[in-house]
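Model it.
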Amino acid sequence: MKNRISISQIKKDFAEKKITPTKLVENLINKIEKEDVELNSIVIKNYENALEKAKIADENIKNNRGGLLEGIPFISKPVFCSKGVTTNMCSNIIRNFVPTYESSVTERLLNEGAILLANANMDEFAMGSSTMTGIYGSALSNWKRKSDGKRVIGGGSSGGSAIAVSSGFSPFSLGSDTGGSVRQPAALTGLVGMKGTYGRCPRYGMISFASSFDQAGVFTTNVDDNATIFNIIAGHDSRDSTSLKANVPNYLQNINNGVKGLKIGIPKECYEFDDMNEEVKNSWDTVIQKLKNAGAEIQEISLKNLKHGISIYYILASTEASSNFAKYDGIRYGPCVENPKNLEDLYIQNRYLGFGDEVKRRIFLGTYVLSSDLEHNYYKKARQVRNVIYLDFQKAFESIDAILMPTTPDVARATDEKVTVVQNYMSDILTVPVNVGGLPGISVPSGLSSNGLPIGMQIVANKLQEGLLFQIAKQIENFQLMEDVE
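Modeled.
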């Protein structure tokens, strides 16, 4: 798409002395200041520090020094702690939190010479599918509907990170994916969005929403760039007890091997969803046929419990949030009520002022489900069904290599279009089962709707098979289904 930038092109421009890191950072700052006024995707700026780091990168590149991402700017989601930079999950309860340490993921990027340009807008505490619930107001996509010219949502909860890359504010950005919060915005903004196997990227320094679901993710304009970033951020970190000790392969090594001989599973249950947009179905069918023509073996599979993923996700994620958020009392960070009646009133008022409606809704749900008389009926049963869904995936992977299905059941809606809470939750119906199973997933652009809006396809593989996902995604990218986008 016009004005988008890539890591590979920037590195080439550096090598050919067409531009310096300092000039690039200055250009991007000017672009953000000019174009983001309407979009509101950038909410916490790190410009001064970025320019200082860019000057260092100038010298490193001039003297053939530096890391794999020397001088490459990026934008982060304020869920990853960045030393000296406000990291507040777009919530009032920790509005002024400035970490004194770096998250594993951002630390690895900085060690390779990447430059943090800013933190992006997001749904408060990563709870949402539209980036409309945070304290900085709604983020608006750079995409518009052809029919009426209305702007659409950029998805969520990592919508700001997606919009930033889609708008050409940076070549890549970080997001977090708890139930689809990287893949869904990627699909709605025409980007490549990847989340790894649970534990593939360490969660140290990543502010928790639902600890058994949260994973780091990456937005890029192309598949190769995404694999490049995953080569850097994946891998064990002893500071995170959930971090996997498995070796990390070079994700670029087999990325151009194509799909010949690979067995791709097509879940028949997805065709049965009532709210599946016909154009999304048609795009899915087109990709299936093109993969078949490229040598893949297409096989219908059954994921009979796929439809239950959304229900158990909201039960389990809300219970984990209820527990994780008990520590937020508004005393050290965020607003603090004056003249409370007593300590209990202080906690109640601070949390009332500190949390937005969506966060409160999920805390209430989680606390309700964990109550002594309901825990067995809801929480424990949800955990059992979570295992059943995981086993469904494992049974499917006995005969196939990967699964292909739409990332979202519909294209992006207009920002002024009203939807119910349940309708908003259902936009994640195809992404949450992947998090429920702890599996890796990637969304890759697969074309445009008749209204000129992006459609994305999701590829899912078994645990630790991220390399296979990049390989299949690269093949879909080579079909050039987005080539008519200006």
